[in-house]
Amino acid sequence: MPFSVMPTPRRGSGHPPPAAISAIGLRKSYGDKTVLDGIDLRIPAGSVFALLGPNGAGKTTAVKILSTLVTADGGQAQVAGHDVAASPDGVRAAIGVTGQFSAVDGLITGEENMLLMADLHHLPKHERRRVAAELLERFDLVEAAKKPAAGYSGGMKRRLDIAMTLVGSPRIIFLDEPTTGLDPRSRHTMWQIIRELVSDGVTVFLTTQYLEEADELADRIAVLHDGQIAAEGTAEELKRIVPGGHVRLRFTDPDTYRSAVSALGEVTRDDEALALQIAGDGSQRALRSLLDRLDAAGVEADELTVHTPDLDDVFFALTGSTKVPAQSKVPAQSEESAR
User: Fold this and answer.
1) For a pLDDT cut of 90, what percent of the chain falls above it?
2) Is residue 78 a part of any domain in this protein?
3) pLDDT recorded at residue 17
4) CB under 8 Å, gap of 24 or more: what pairs does 31-40 form?
């Protein structure tokens, strides 16, 4: 059974917040390959939900089903109160989608991209330029608005992408790996944009391979593996379900190191580095007990570090992966500037 903790009800309310997105038993196969094998989701309105998983886990397929771009083979889903199968037009009217690859037309200017999107949303003529101008200013693209988008940096194209997504004032936004290929500065700029959207009441469904990104942004995280939700909860809840917490002691004096080994008993030794690793949950009580044992033996470590499980550990434990996903490493692949 996957690990899951139900969302905490809002203060002053006996009921959890309404779901912006919900799904029960979603299934999808391509040929003989099962991509989604009966996943359940419940995403409260006005929150950030992150779907983690290795390449090919089905993250993009889930986004495509929920945004009505692909039909599920089984199960049910509602987005913004509309059934994705029975009322796809209602879903499309309520959402915005930014995919892994930029939808920006590089042959026209940023402003023209915005106006084209306004036309697609059938905004009144007097509204189109106003909405375009407001969003270009909000995303710091005014100076580049009259220039062909082909000359934009990766960060600028991503900001324009999201600005175009917001033309129709969606209350739910799907961001499918929105920071792939961006340098760290551009990625942090995108994080701030996402936080601002949520502060305005927008619900964000985020897929990502950057574990740090999910940790920074998401109210709740689900790990998708072999077509199923392997675990779901807040970042802190997920970190508590895997072992791996430990304290590392390092010594500069070999005699003191040997005394610590004798005093502590069951430890993992690194004789070359004169370092010891002691399993523990990182709590104050466990740390105090360790220090008391060292004091009793008259031993003082030169360096003490505490490691508690992080989302990397969760990812490895749940997916059986032996290495960090390619996109989770920092620095990123591209060194384009945020400007």
Assistant:
1) 54
2) yes
3) 67
4) 34/227, 35/61, 35/227, 36/61, 36/62, 36/65, 36/72, 36/227, 37/226, 37/227, 37/228, 38/74, 38/75, 38/227, 38/228, 39/75, 39/224, 39/227, 39/228, 39/229, 40/229
Of residues 223, 239, 220, the one with CA closest to residue 231: 223
Q: At what angle do helices 254-264 and 284-296 cross, to 10 degrees?
A: 120
What average pLDDT does the segment 274-288 reach? 84
Judgement on whether residues 261 and 233 belong to the same structural domain of the protein: no
**C-alpha dist (Å) from residue 152 to 17, 187, 233:** 40, 15, 37
Tell me: do 284 and 211 sit in the same domain. no
Distance CA 68, CA 12 (A): 35
| Nearest residue to 135 via CA among 155, 118, 150 | 118
Claim to verify: residue 232 and residue 263 sit in the same structural domain: no
pLDDT at 98: 86
Range of 271's domain? 246-308
pLDDT of residue 321: 56
Q: pTM, whole model, 2 decimals?
A: 0.75
Per-residue pLDDT reduced to its tens digit, 64-93: 999 999 999 999 999 999 999 999 999 999
Query: Of all residues in the chain, what percent carry a pLDDT higher than 70?
Result: 88
Torsion of CA 105, 110, 112, 115, to 10 degrees: 100
E strands within the chain? 3-4, 19-30, 33-44, 48-52, 74-79, 82-83, 95-98, 172-176, 203-208, 220-225, 228-233, 246-250, 268-270, 275-279, 303-307
Please give the pLDDT value at position 244: 67
Regarding whether 179 and 99 lie in a shared domain, the answer is yes
As a whole number, mean pLDDT of residues 149-161 equals: 90
Using the CB atoms, write b or e for 280-306: b if 16+ within 10 Å. Answer: bbeeeebbeebeeebeeeebebeeeee
d(CA 139, CA 163): 7
